[in-house]
Amino acid sequence: MDNLLTTGKISQSTFDIFNNEIDAGIAEIEKQRNALFEKMDSKTNELGEQIKTLEMLLANLEIQHVTGDVEEEVYQREINVLSMGLESAKQELDTLRDAVNQLSDGNRNTEEERRIEPTGDSVDAPPENANPEPQSSEQPIEEPVQSINPEAKSEQKR
């Protein structure tokens, strides 16, 4: 848009209107992104608590079985239910962490692209270094997410 303004193709008032609309749109997206990260963080904590509870129940059942307080049939039925619930919660937590990582990586790329200023005269041409990551068929290494705090991430990047 800067090129359109400097070449006289649009007026300053039109430029200002578009800039204000773009800024408002970006602010709304950031607000929604932060709300999504908060919900995902809350769900991650909830799943962590569910996993702890299921592990405690499983351990208690094992102890009761060893001490003879629980019959074999009841033990087998309950151990299967608890194990399935535990596995399901762990899979959901892994899926949620993957989604958080993908959203966090996508956000970082978007912020990097916004900082890159085009050098050519064409408004439609993307900057040459807009996608600095090499194209590879290898899968990225995923690391567990400790806590989701997009504002702290933004502060660290500055």
Summary tags:
mainly alpha; about 160 residues; 4 helices
Could you explain the architecture of this structure?
- With 158 residues, the chain is mostly helical.
- The chain has one domain.
- 71% of the residues lie in helices and 0% in strands.
- The chain has 4 helices and no strands.
- It has helices at residues 2-6, 12-66, 72-115, 150-157.
- Helix 2 (12-66) packs antiparallel against helix 3.
- It is rod-shaped, with a radius of gyration of 25 Å.
- Residues 109-158 have low confidence and may be disordered.
Q: Beta-strand level of the residues, as a percent range?
A: under 5%
C-alpha-based Rg, rounded: 25 Å
Q: Please trace the helix and strand order, writing H or E for each element.
A: HHHH
Low-confidence stretches: 109-158
**SSE-based structural type:** mainly alpha
What profile does the largest beta sheet have? none
What is the helical fraction, as a range of percent?
A: over 70%
Q: What is the typical, i.e. mean, pLDDT?
A: 76
Overall body shape: rod-shaped
Count of domains? 1
Count the helices. How many? 4
Distance between the termini: 26 Å
Number of DSSP strand runs:
0
Summarize the structure in short.
By secondary structure, the protein is mainly α.
List the SSEs and their pairings.
Elements lengths: L1 H5 L5 H55 L5 H44 L34 H8 L1
